[in-house]
Amino acid sequence: MAFPKINPTTTAAWKKLQARFEAEQHTTIAQHFDNEPERLQRFAHQWEDFYVDFSKNNVSQKALNDLLVFAEQCGLQDAISAYFGGDFINVTENRAVLHTALRSVTPTAVRVKGAAIAPGIAEVKAKMQDFSTSVIEGQWKGHTGKAITTIVNIGIGGSDLGPAMVCEALEHYRNHLKVHFVSNVEGDHVQETIAQLDPETTLFVVVSKTFTTQETMTNANTLREWLVAQLGGEAVAKHFVAVSTNIEQIKAFGIAAENIFPMNDWVGGRFSLWSTVGLSICLTVGPKHFDALLSGAGALDAHFKTAPWEKNIPVLAGLFSVWYNNFWGAASEAIIPYTQYLRSLPAYLQQGIMESNGKNVDRNGAVIGYQTGAIIWGAPGTNAQHAFFQLMHQGTKLIPADFIGFTKPLKGNKDHQNKLLANFIAQTEALMCGKDRTTVEAELNAQGKTPQEIQALAPFKVFEGNRPTTTILINQLTPYTLGALIAHYESKLFVQGVLWNIFSFDQWGVELGKQLATNVLTELEATTTSYENRHDPSTTALIQRCSKP
Ligand code: F6P
Question: 514 an active-site residue?
Answer without folding.
Answer: yes
